[in-house]
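yo, Phosphotransferase is done. seq:
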Amino acid sequence: MEHILGQEWEISPAGGATGEAFYARYEDQSLFLKRNSSPFLAVLSAEGIVPKLVWTKRLENGDVITAQQWLEGRELKPPEMNQELVARLLKKIHRSEPMLGMLSRLEKSPLNPEMFFQSVIREIDTETLSLPEVKEALSFLEQEVQNVHCDEKVVCHGDVNHNNWLLTEDNQLYLIDWDGASIADPAIDLGMLLYLYIPEKNWQDWLQMYGEELTDNLRLRMKWYVVLQTISFIQFHKNKTRFEEMNYWIQFLHEIL
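structure:
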């Protein structure tokens, strides 16, 4: 990275699963650098969903380096997920035509429930499939799959965990880490956010801030996708031998069923 910016820049790893992200600092300038970000980053920046894209450079080996503004801020705390700021930003994302157009141009096909189901089940091993909670979950998913179709297809983030919401010092909210973006039912994002952070008695109030009614159909779609995502989380933590987290999601699955 030094040969791109110059020796005077101080560059350090910025964490993350891929090891492809870096933090660069020189005097009063700070940048977030990433190798081979999706072209989707440009429209996310233009829409104000992520911190501003400063420049993009293609290297001789074909790698693309992007530089974004580094903003001082913090991730949201779980109780803060009930704020109107969160509901409004998620609605802006789900309504964004430029974002939908860009993902479509990147050949992202809209996901329907069957496709989503198959993509998750392919990753699940026989040991996880034999868990009583997972068996019950699969029975529910197969029983309801025909009832969760939704004509509305939007850009979904896919991981609306509170760690991915960045609140800056001047109270600007961003949603970062878009590697799992898809074109799908907005219930994918809404369900996990509500189930994880909002007491059920407050779902209607939160959805009102977002601009949606809590219908029986939306409730079913949210539950269906949350159950499916939870099976995926159980397998993910099992693969990483994080058995405490795996057991948390098994218990979570038990409670929502």
